[in-house]
Structure formats: structure tokens, C-alpha cells
Amino acid sequence: MATALSSRLARIHRERPPQDLVENKVTFGAAGAAFSVYDTVRPAERVPLAAENPLYCGMVTGKKLVHTATGAAIPFLPLESLVVPTGQTIEIDFPGASDEAPTKCLTIEIDRAQVRRVAARLNETTPRSSDSGDWRYDDDAVCHFMNTPGIEHTVRQLVGLFVDDDPDKDVLIDLGVQELVVRMLRVEARKLLLEESARRATRHGLAAAAETAKARLHEDLKVSDLAAAACMSEATFYRAFRNEFGITPVAYLTRLRVDRARQLLADPGRSVTDVAASVGFGSVSHFIRVYREHVGLTPKQDQLARQAEA
Question: φ, ψ for residue 140 (rounded to 5)?
């Protein structure tokens, strides 16, 4: 995550030095939410983690392998987030943790009633299309996604509020948690649409657009192409898309390209030029600039960093 967040976490480390070698936990509480930092400096396997409320997890440094109740094994890396459902236990491996390369993760536990209130308000103010159904939090499955700039910003703000002694701390944290929930619901909606787009494409215009985006990501896709796939005018498509996902179709395409590029760069044999072309960037310099804006590193820096952690 960003430098401002890292400096705050370093301050916590100095003021409250770790006592445990595996999943040392430091917690800051507030009304309806709790923020924790976990540090691990020794390899470990199958360390359980669970919470009584939805748990947002953000990786800061190192690497984890998360085992879910369904048997999935999810590599969990910096610049990624994970949301653990209420009462569900995940088990975590720490394959490379050491004093020189600690694994650091932060969590924000959110009152489940707060999540429901935010979803209800979204249903009142910005209802989804009839094909998509109501806004709701999926409290059954682990949700894993690459951070968006909005989530990065919101988490940085929340960490500062939890750690600092502000007289309006509880009120500001409550507002920040609401913002985080909205952003999580938007990301979850986009992720669900991508996962189910093939099945839903024949009856859901936005799903058809998502399927087109996935299939033709290597092309110079335009909003007009997605609108045509959705059988909507550009103006109608733009409004429907923004209402459903909270971002513009162009921002969605860019995010999709960066996510796919990051997957491809996990292969050390793939060059930046090759990956840029594979995800629809005609200019390598433009690709590098956009990638750095979203990930915080250039494609090559990110590729090398992940190789070092492997």
C-alpha cells in the first residue's frame, strides 16, 4: 500500500513492538468497527483466522496462501484485498516470512448490521437493474480482488483515524466504514458479473458487455463496442453501467486490463511489451504509466518484486 499507510504502520510497530513471531496482533477499536495489524516473521502453515462480523483484509508486505472452507487455495499478495464472511474460518500459510521479509496484513472488522444498512441505503438511492437484483453483501463466500484506488484511499484514511487521537474519531470512522462498504459492494458486483457473464450474457445487457470486454481485451475496445454488445445506446449504457458499478465503462476497461496484465506478468518469461499488447495497449509508455497509477509500481518493478517473493 502507499507510503503514508506504511509510515503509520511503522509507527505502530515502534510503539507496540511485536510479542509473537506468527500473526502478532495489534488492535484499535471504535464503535461498530475494529482495526488490526498482523505481523509474521516466521514461516507457518494453516494458521486459522475468523471473525464474528465481515472482515476486510488488506495485504501490505510479504505473501500468504489462504485456504478457504470450499477448499480453494488463494495466493494473497500486496495490493490485494480479501473479505472473509461472518463466522467463516480461513487458514493461512506464510511460506516466506522472516525477520528480513516480514508478512504484514491489516484487517478491519465491520459490524454486519452496518453492512446491511449501507446495502439498504444503496437500494433506496441507487437501485440496481431488475436483472441484477438488490444490493446485498454475499456473506457466504470469500471475496478476493485487486485493490482499486478508491479502496486504497479509504483504507489509508481509516487507518489514520483508528491510530490518531481525533475528538471526532468515532463519527469519522463510521463514515469511513460506510464508504469502504460501498466500495466493497461495487467491487463485489463487478467481480460477480465477470465470473458469471458467460452464463448471464443472453439475458443481461451488462453481462453481455462484460463478456465482450473479456473476450476482446486485446483489442482497442471503445464504449460504443460495449454498448452495442449490451444492445443499448451509449448514453443509456453509460448511465446503467455507472449506476451498477460506481465507475465509468472506460475506468472499468482500464481496471480490467491492469488486472489481466498483472496476472500475465506473474510469468517471468513475459515481457512488458508483450503484456501491453495482450491487454489492448497500443503504446508501451502509456501502459507503464497507467499500470503505475493503479498498482503503485511499474510493470517490471511489480514483476521483479513478485519473483523475489515467490
Answer: -115, -30
Dist CA 309 CA 97 (whole Å): 10
Mapped onto helix, strand or coil, the DSSP state of residue 107 is strand
Provide the residue ranges of all domains of the chain, joining segments of one domain with +.
Answer: 3-194, 201-309
Q: What is the pLDDT of residues 34-61, one digit of tens each?
A: 999 999 999 999 999 998 999 999 999 9
DSSP E strands, the chain: 24-30, 33-40, 44-49, 55-61, 64-67, 73-76, 80-84, 90-94, 103-110, 143-146
CATH 2.60.120.280 fits 3-194, yes or no: yes
CB atoms within 10 A of CB 76: 21
The distance between the two most distant Cα atoms of the chain, rounded to a whole number of Å, is: 60
Q: Which CATH architecture has domain 201-309?
A: Orthogonal Bundle (1.10)
Distance, in Å, from the CA atom of 144 to the CA atom of 169, rounded to the nearest integer, reads: 29
> What are 184-236's pLDDT values in tens digits?
888 877 776 556 555 555 457 888 888 898 889 999 899 999 999 989 999 99
From the centroid of its chain, how far is CA 300?
Answer: 21
H or E segment to which residue 42 belongs? none
